[in-house]
Specification:
Largest interface: A-B, 70 and 69 residues
Number of strands of chain A: 0
Structural class of chain B: alpha+beta
Helix content of chain B: 25-40%
Oligomer: heterodimer
Structural class of chain A: mainly alpha
Number of helices of chain A: 14
Strand content of chain A: under 5%
Number of strands of chain B: 18
Chain lengths: ~325, ~500
């Protein structure tokens, strides 16, 4: 087990290094640079050169990479070239929006996927089970932006229950207002992600129902449903945990779109704006942290999976 | 594998949703509403384009000028919504008959937001530093200034040669007065003399102005103005209908019925100096032939563009109606597809295929009209939508383009037609000479007349096409008054903005 964990950890670190190089080089391929954006459309070539020099953009690319990665190893992710704000503090500030948004969205997704996924599997030959499956297919195909707009029209504009956009300037010091601001965005992401997850749950449940241990339990006198709930569900839970990493990445992508749509000052919107401003030092820091997060969640999922699933330990 | 795909998608999305920088503009013409203004009111204003940072000295883009000048920073003189020049930190000013000496009387009792007094030395320092620091964006606008000196409250500028653009320049960035030796980090904070203090900037979200209690002039009507940056018009509309915004700027006139539906908002339209400029790279290739350029201009139906936008006016030359030197030039290149086809045939340019490079933030309305109009005369137009930084790099920096579309918002920017190195690639010594004469003119009317002559030549040379003269489109709540409506992309003076009680 420890050897397994160490191997995975080594892979994680290696993955981060490769990611850092990929992030750095791909960003340098983008046309245009921050100096041009600062200088604007009435600048002279001399002004542009002056700004490039001040920002250190005239140095060779490998030197710039070395500078950055050296800082990262010392725990310094760098600062915005536009405002001088450290990447870490910006990320922490925006995380106040995006992390709760992601957690809420994930909770919504589970609330949708688990009960309905099991229902769709158990009652797959009945009209309600079929309806759930078809509904999930349709829902998973709905564009997030459209879903969000419809929710806004109904719950914000027409009913006036929830804000249509934005996040309170007071942030979480006004928890009720902050929570209300995240409800519609989280539901938007959560329902669509949940519909995707639902199909995983459904097929995992179907698989569990065919397992010997469930059938044995049923043979010993439990009803099929009881057998499934008591003995089958743990293995369904495992399948859900397996796709957790993918779900987190999915929710992040959802956040990029949804934060734009709802004008939420979160990490997704910041990434879009920083890329648009070619604030590359900031973008690469943000992407590295996000990549790290996904890799770490994947690492933890692997370990948890190993602990929870006796079959994997025995196979060792 | 799935994980990596998702991350790539994140990066792509991030790269895709870019907003234009430097390409929105504005100016004021107060709006209505009765009722007692609430002195404690917070007015929520939606803006489109957020500045990358707040360094008014170095960072380009009208997003900074739009809110920082007049509200936070001031110069000796200022411009009004109808483009008149009026005293600001100077109580009055005099210009000598030979236009070589400008004397300003500095107001007394002016304090900066941090409590320090404004001294004549601050003025001398600010202007000298601006002139002598080439990386400051508008430094060159003071190039004609030989000396800057103070004696008591009198500030005197002497010029090397007359400069009819100097006063206008002093109402802009070049003339802003800062505190000498100020330690404030201009990228994220500000210390000015205007009616508002910059209270907070939440990057990627909003900027908050607070009434400056010790302001030398009439204090602002509202206690607080919050500018929220919302790029999406649909989100802005929802926000307004849900009561989260009091004013929407940069709005879409086609959404008039929706925003006015419940009677709380009125759509307001004001003139602007926004110029929808279709640039022609005329250094080589088919566009070097003036007949081809003329044909393109005559093939494009400007009226249908204005109709599709729901706001704006047609324009047929480089100078918009708000600027000096304007003249109706519609007879130079009227819409006439038949004439266009003839010109193309004469030029031997049949079956022409051209590429339009356009920042994607401008949407698809204009490219669609262009593709269809040009197809009617036998030109195949390929549309290449790019991010704004890509446009800056390829078109602006490297002049690597055939046709380009960008909305130029700056007022009085004719100088670009007299600059052969500008991305317009237009080089006509006669225009350059007329522009130099206009700058050197000692009489405003004479200067305007010279500009008018030069503008006519630019249009007759078909140096570019002007698809429309934009208008400022705003939605203003019924309990709000004092909202400027003219050229608000470039200047948004909110000192008189008020919200009534109840």
């Amino acid at each position: 087990m420890i050897r397994y964990a160490l191997t995975r950890l080594a892979l994680l670190v290696l993955g981060l290094f490769v990611a850092s190089a990929l992030i750095f080089t791909t960003l340098r391929i983008l046309p245009g640079d921050i100096a041009q954006l600062i200088a604007g459309v009435n600048s002279t070539p001399e002004q542009l050169a002056g700004i490039r020099e001040r920002l250190g953009l005239d140095r060779p690319i490998p030197v710039q990479y070395g500078d950055w990665i050296g800082g990262v190893l010392r725990g310094d992710l760098g600062s915005s070239q536009l405002t001088g704000t450290p990447v870490v503090s910006e990320l922490l500030q925006k995380a106040e929006v995006t992390v709760p948004l992601g957690i809420l969205a994930f909770v919504v997704a589970l609330l949708v996927a688990l009960p309905f996924g099991v229902l769709a599997a158990v009652r797959r030959h009945r009209p309600d089970g079929v309806a759930v499956s078809v509904g999930a297919q349709a829902l998973a195909a709905v564009p997030v932006v459209w879903a969000g707009m419809m929710l806004v029209v109904v719950f914000a504009v027409t009913l006036g229950w929830l804000p249509a956009q934005g996040f309170p300037r007071a942030g979480w010091s006004d928890p009720a207002a902050a929570f209300r601001a995240l409800v519609l965005p989280a539901v938007t992401i959560g329902v669509v992600e949940g519909a995707v997850l639902l199909r995983f749950v459904r097929s995992a449940t179907l698989q569990a129902m065919g397992q010997d241990f469930v059938r044995t339990a049923a043979a010993k006198g439990l009803t099929r449903t009881q057998a499934l709930l008591r003995h089958g569900l743990p293995s369904v839970g495992l399948s859900v945990i397996t796709v957790l990493g993918v779900q987190v990445a999915g929710i992040m992508v959802g956040a990029v779109v949804i934060e734009q749509l709802f004008s939420l000052p979160g990490i997704g919107r910041m990434l879009v704006e920083d890329t648009g401003n070619r604030d590359l030092v900031k973008v690469q820091g943000e992407l590295l942290v996000l990549t790290g997060l996904v890799l770490i969640i994947g690492f933890v999922v692997d370990l948890v999976h190993r602990v929870l699933d006796p079959r994997q330990r025995e196979a060792e | 594998m799935l994980r990596r795909t998702a991350l790539a998608a994140t990066a792509l999305l991030a790269a895709g949703a870019l907003l234009l920088s430097g390409c929105t503009g504005s100016q004021p013409a107060p709006s209505r509403s009765e009722g007692t203004p609430d002195p404690d009111a917070t007015v929520n204003v939606r803006l489109v384009l957020e500045p990358g940072n707040l360094d008014i000295r170095e960072t380009g883009g009208s997003a900074l000028d739009q809110i920082l000048i007049d509200n936070v920073y001031q110069g000796l003189i200022a411009r009004t919504p109808d483009q008149k020049i009026v005293p600001a930190l100077a109580s009055d000013y005099e210009v000598s008959g030979d236009k070589l000496t400008y004397t300003f009387t500095l107001r007394e009792g002016v304090t900066f937001h941090d409590g320090q007094p404004l001294t004549p030395q601050d003025v001398v320092w600010s202007l000298t530093q601006e002139r002598d620091t080439p990386t400051y964006r508008d430094s060159a606008r003071l190039a004609n200034v030989a000396t800057i000196a103070a004696e008591g409250q009198k500030i005197t500028l002497t010029l090397k040669a007359p400069d009819s653009t100097l006063l206008w320049s002093l109402t802009g960035r070049a003339g802003l007065i800062l505190k000498e030796g100020d330690k404030v980090d201009r990228k994220t904070a500000a210390n000015g003399t205007g009616p508002f203090r910059l209270a907070d900037w939440r990057e990627g979200d909003s900027i908050v102005f607070e009434r400056f209690a010790d302001y030398w002039g009439t204090p602002s009507s509202a206690a607080e103005v919050v500018f929220s940056y919302v790029s999406d018009n649909q989100a802005a509309l929802s926000g307004a209908l849900a009561g989260e915004f009091d004013v929407l700027t940069g709005f879409d006139a086609n959404l008039k019925d929706q925003v006015e539906a419940n009677g709380d908002f009125t759509l307001e339209i004001g003139d602007s100096t926004d110029k929808g400029t279709l640039a022609f790279n005329q250094t080589s290739g088919p566009l070097a032939d003036v007949r081809v350029r003329k044909a393109i201009r005559q093939a494009i139906d400007k009226k249908s563009i204005v109709e599709a936008l729901g706001a704006g006016k047609t324009m047929y030359g480089p100078i918009p109606s708000l600027d000096p030197g304007y003249e109706d030039l519609s007879e130079v290149a009227p819409f006439d597809p038949e004439a266009a086809r003839k010109l193309l045939a004469e030029a031997g340019a049949e079956n022409l295929s051209l590429t339009l490079t356009i920042p994607s933030a401008y949407g698809t309305t204009i490219p669609q009209i262009l593709v269809s109009n040009l197809r009617d005369v036998g030109i195949t137009l390929k549309v290449n939508p790019v991010e704004f930084p890509t446009w800056l790099n390829d078109v602006y920096g490297n002049k690597d383009y055939e046709l380009s579309f960008v909305l130029h918002t700056e007022a009085r920017d004719f100088e670009n037609w007299a600059n052969p190195d500008y991305y317009f690639t237009y080089n006509n010594p006669e225009v350059q000479k007329l522009y130099a004469e206009a700058v050197a003119a000692t009489d405003d009317a004479a200067a305007a007349d010279l500009l008018k002559q030069a503008a006519r030549i630019v249009s007759e040379d078909d140096a570019a096409d002007w698809l429309y003269n934009g208008q400022s489109v705003l939605a203003v709540a019924s309990d709000v008054s004092g909202m400027p409506t003219v050229n608000v992309n470039e200047r948004l003076n909110v000192a008189e903005l008020a919200k009534s009680e109840g």
